[in-house]
Specification:
Residues 2-115, 117-310 form the Protein-arginine deiminase C-terminal domain. Helices cover 20% and strands 18% of the residues. By secondary structure, the chain is of the alpha/beta class. It has a single domain (2-291), classed as L-arginine/glycine Amidinotransferase, Chain A (5-stranded Propeller), CATH 3.75.10. It has a three-stranded mixed beta sheet with strand order 1-2-3. The longest helix has 24 residues, at 165-188. The radius of gyration is 20 Å and the shape is globular. The model is unreliable at 115-127 (pLDDT under 50).
């Protein structure tokens, strides 16, 4: 399944505008590349352009063997590695996964400068995987060139789902939290509501103790807080993808087929098309979706260090 997943993004990359190279992280059988490494870089102005150093941050999970690839095979010329402090010492906890850290372009709010771009991260410690709720994308039709996405929206028929009251209540439940998290983000980011793209998504109730998992971490329980529910994507989530310039790689939706077209895939194309972004769908259903993740969770990207973000 993993080999099939790797082949699909590789094929999709042949059709993107800015074709990047694909590097396989084969050091372990951990399939969650987004979680055990967080790539970043430090740069400053130089006489002949930016002077930069890549820094690969290993997740704060000392017993997660896959993260050791930062030092065993990836660190090298102009590429550094960093292992953050474990803090409480519970290095296996999912809250310490790299997928809970999201990078956005530097933004000046006209008041406090660039710190406004990162302040909201400190307020999201209890939200779970941030990358599964929202993602940033380049707005090719706006001078700022940056906006934000929000995910709103088995052989079953559309009518059957629409008549399932439990299913409908689940959508209302999750929408309440999506709206709340979106408001938190927009409190910290100088973006108007009309810069937010709303991506159609469906969820299902997934509330039960998890005895074990397949993310490279020891078995542990994930119990829901009293009065709350645990949710998971009902169909592969299009919000959980990878932005490459003017192209977007995301999970194949496997949604309802109407007139020979997947109406959810078309809806995603239409929304991203508003900003000039072309969408490419990758089949991750068996490799990642059934295990609780999507394309973004199983991949990672290196940012362009030549960007003069200070100008």
């Amino acid at each position: 399944m993993q080999q099939k997943f790797v082949q699909h993004p590789d094929d999709a990359l042949m059709n993107v505008t800015e074709t990047p190279s694909l590097h396989l992280l084969n050091g372990t059988d951990d399939i969650w590349a987004q979680d055990f490494i967080e790539p970043g870089f430090a740069s400053m102005p130089g006489s002949e352009g930016p002077i930069s150093l890549r820094v690969l941050v290993q997740s704060a999970q000392s017993i997660r063997v896959s993260g050791r690839q930062v030092f065993e095979s990836l660190r090298g010329d102009r590429v550094g590695g960093h292992q953050p402090s474990l803090g409480s010492g519970f290095g296996h906890e999912e809250i310490n996964s790299g997928g809970n850290i999201e990078i956005i372009p530097p933004m000046d709010d006209g008041c406090c400068g660039y710190p406004s771009s990162i302040k909201f991260i400190k307020k999201a410690q209890d939200s779970g995987h941030g990358s599964t709720l929202a993602t940033s994308y380049p707005n090719l039709r706006q001078p700022e060139g940056f906006s934000f996405c929000d995910s709103r929206l088995e052989n079953l028929t559309i009518d059957a789902l629409l008549s399932d009251d439990d299913f409908l209540q689940t959508q209302k439940y999750v929408q309440k939290y999506i709206d709340h998290n979106l408001e938190l983000l927009l409190e910290e980011l100088p973006l108007p509501h009309n810069e937010v793209l709303r991506i159609p998504a469906l969820f299902k109730n997934f509330t039960y103790p998890w005895p074990s998992n397949l993310d490279g971490l020891p078995p542990r329980l994930h119990r829901a807080a009293p009065g709350q529910s645990q949710l998971i994507a009902f169909l592969p989530a299009a919000i959980n993808g990878v932005v490459i310039g003017s192209d977007y790689l995301t999970a194949k939706r496997w949604g309802p087929i109407v007139d020979d077209h997947d109406i959810l895939e078309q809806a995603v194309r239409d929304v991203y098309g508003q900003t000039g972004i072309k969408v490419h769908f990758v089949d991750d259903f068996m490799s990642h979706h059934v295990n609780g993740g999507e394309v973004h969770c199983g991949t990672n990207t290196l940012k362009d260090t030549r960007v003069e973000w200070w100008s």
